[in-house]
Amino acid sequence: xxxxxxxxxxxxxxxxxxxxxxxxxxxxxxxxxxxxxxxxxxxxxxxxxxxxxxxxxxxxxxxxxxxxxxxxxxxxxxxxxxxxxxxxxxxxxxxxxxxxxxxxxxxxxxxxxxxxxxxxxxxxxxxxxxxxxxxxxxxxxxxxxxxxxxxxxxxxxxxxxxxxxxxxxxxxxxxxxxxxxxxxxxxxxxxxxxxxxxxxxxxxxxxxxxxxxxxxxxxxxxxxxxxxxxxxxxxxxxxxxxxxxxxxxxxxxxxxxxxxxxxxxxxxxxxxxxxxxxxxxxxxxxxxxxxxxxxxxxxxxxxxxxxxxxxxxxxxxxxxxxxxxxxxxxxxxxxxxxxxxxxxxxxxxxxxxxxxxxxxxxxxxxxxxxxxxxxxxxxxxxxxxxxxxxxxxxxxxxxxxxxxxxxxxxxxxxxxxxxxxxxxxxxxxxxxxxxxxxxxxxxxxxxxxxxxxxxxxxxxxxxxxxxxxxxxxxxxxxxxxxxxxxxxxxxxxxxxxxxxxxxxxxxxxxxxxxxxxxxxxxxxxxxxxxxxxxxxxxxxxxxxxxxxxxxxxxxxxxxxxxxxxxxxxxxxxxxxxxxxxxxxxxxxxxxxxxxxxxxxxxxx
Length: 604
Hints:
The chain is α/β, with parallel strands linked by helices. It has 19 helices and 25 strands.
């Protein structure tokens, strides 16, 4: 039977025949910790008396806060630097850029490689036909120490783009069109393979743009069969003869999805939900206060060049701030050499040093209360890039909008910029506070009061916002739980130790942050039950030894305040009425990790 791309890559790195649904150990070619997660990785390794498997395959990348302008970020970076010196690990420091881009540009990964990072967008490695995966601190610590991780082999969906888009459509518009069709959880637990004439024509930068946004569809990774341009690039930067890993003609797919892109025009994602995608014409004229060009999705040289071509001889609208952040130092320097930085500065833009910028809350790119931003980023969750509202679009649309002062497309730039009227100020809300409870034990049977949160796609910024990522003491984390989830801001004040949280689909979508699990442990929550979990979140909970269960309770008549009984081993829930409901029990390997108290704990 033929194999998909992911099945071939995982099979070669587990050295055996594999099939979707199997849990296997896979060897990891490149292991990366970033600046906000790196300190926790170091702590896990030291606390458990572990060593480094292979320093030549192990790296730190400081891309969330390249300036180290926050004291806790600076502390975390220094912890990583000291640890790196002790173990001869290479650090891509604050002058380098986004780690997942460096893996490609430095030739650390080639088609068919496996890469782990604390970055939830490590799946941009799919742009070169490699397997990249964002994971939490425990997974990365395990990869650092043992060179391997467990992984459930995912099924693959084949996505084919059909038709000819309009001349104004860019790779960002293509992936937004896909996101509109697939939704926030359409790829939950799946790998996507992309095909079609427009895919074949895409260069590396366009593939990176599209691959990056697999996370926003809850996908494991989007894989693009490398074309000759990509193979040539990977061969040059790696100094190796590179061969693609391609799916067999008789490969078995979970499903095939055809998406019509005929005449596709510039697309825009409305604030709060990346999948809420509309034609850009529907919001033309919306007043903006800021614009951002950068991120791992649109920070390549080609994106910078597009912006410069539109900005040349123009000015950013009065009162509008345009922030531009290249993805890597090499991109930054090429912008300097080619005169792009001069164009940016003459137009009135702020140019930052290479890095993640607004997404990580650690560098330029954040907005303020009531501010309207148009951004090339991949996420616009509430609070993700500040306290305002964020629209997602291509570099061309963002640049045109910055010049016009309102959202617009490159063919409709205003002759005179639209200026601000006198506005009002948004008041910043207070952070809820609560007492920190003691961690709970890890039984396999639970009885507890439930909190029903009947919402799907609750992302990690809603669970535990990125402004608290520098906190490493679990005892401090609980009071910030759900303070960015509308209607549940006071959850931490009301929850009691032993309570059970019940939610809908795709719980924990978004970032790889371990804190979104640890905050529940901090509060003494005994269990989280969801109809489905985000892939990284599920791993983080299992690896930490925190109990979760997959079961659909939000569609029952169960109410908040009711008491349920849960058997984790059997995957069984007993409702207050006495009715029994089947959930999904842990697999043997997952149960073993849970019972011993976490992935890095020694067997009793």
